[in-house]
Fold this protein.
Amino acid sequence: MKKMRIKVGSVTYAMKAKAVLQRYGLRVQIIKTAKSMKNEGCGYAVIVPETDLNVAEILRREGVSALEMKWET
Amino acid sequence: MTYFDNAATTFPKPRAVTHAMAQAVLRYGANPGRAGHRMAYETAERVYAAREAVSDFFALGKPESVIFTKNCTESLNTVIFGLARRGGHFVCSDLEHNAVVRPLEALRRKGECTWTAVHIGETDEETLANFENALRKETVAIVCTGASNVFGKRAPLKGLADLAHRNGVLLIADAAQTAGILPISMQKDGIDFLCAPGHKGLYGVMGTGILLCNSERALEPLTYGGTGTLSVQLTQPKDYPERLESGTLNVPGILALEKGIRFVQSKGSKQIYAHEMHTVKKIQEALRQMSNVLLYTNLSEQSQSYVPLVSFNIRGLHSEETAAQLSEAGIAVRAGLHCAPLAHKTYGTQEMGTVRICPSVFTNEKDVNSLLNSVFKIAKAI
């Protein structure tokens, strides 16, 4: 099953993304990111399960800017 | 003890607030926004829920623009210093607390900004005209209290927001005495920055304050340091709230504040205001009938609007002496200048100060009777 990893700027935006997506029935997991540590330092990402919803658009509308989006299996 | 010092901090606190403090220590003991373990996430989630509660309560619509501070003073300092620029100018009222006046004066003494204090008039029209006359092309912001912490007199914040925006300046509102008892909508009222304590009308605990940002204008931080994100950068993150929240947060206080707000919502701000105003009017009417008691406001006056607090003096006694005698009788009030020398100058009470009485949602008739009996005895003995 495909998952989407959305990197956000802070734990607050991770929590906001989680709260927003939960309203759309999506169970979201928050993780600390490690891959970008060299360039930026600590950060957070939300892991979103596969969905037909336009997650990027939903988050953009709610004022959550995604720093990076990646699809993983 | 009978407590009438609620304008300084409300006491007692709702049971749910006390419980939330304990829960924060027992269950949410990790540092939010730092580690990636379960308790850190759960704590961050509770902190975010508190941001949502604050944002909803003040109709801000942006939980991430709720900044947690340690008190209203820190919120005011953050926004005043955060907006200050060389050559800038601020306008405030003549009822401001030192939390506004001292940062402005510090900026003036450093040669960075100037400021003007204008009179809160007998009518809103007069007040708005006074503010308008004080605006200059270099004015950055109007900083105004929602209500005087000494005399309770209210300022027309919505009108000031309109005036500010018509002139391209920002409105900073000090809601120290209004948050929780008067309806405040960041969006409808057009307030750009709102500063409030968590421990007064919102019934949280001391050591908590909030700054709500409703403006595109980014504030320069007052404090720099760790935010748990973008750690490689030597500069502060651009995004709120982390930009203005360096260092570990007061999680027990923040979680308790959420419960305080829920408590206010459950009672209703309108009902709390009605109860407190009824109580304070009753006190003022009784004081009016006592000889040797000096009053400075008339809460029943239709043309003026007030928050529920009253200042008084007993003729021939310094306000601190009156407060000391009341304390001996088991009554807690605040006397002196209440950190608001401008307000005392305006009312001509800078020599004596005043004794301030402020009820809370918990104040009952027995409390009122105890207070009045004690004041009567002191005034009669003069």
About this structure: The first helix of chain A runs from residue 11 to 23.
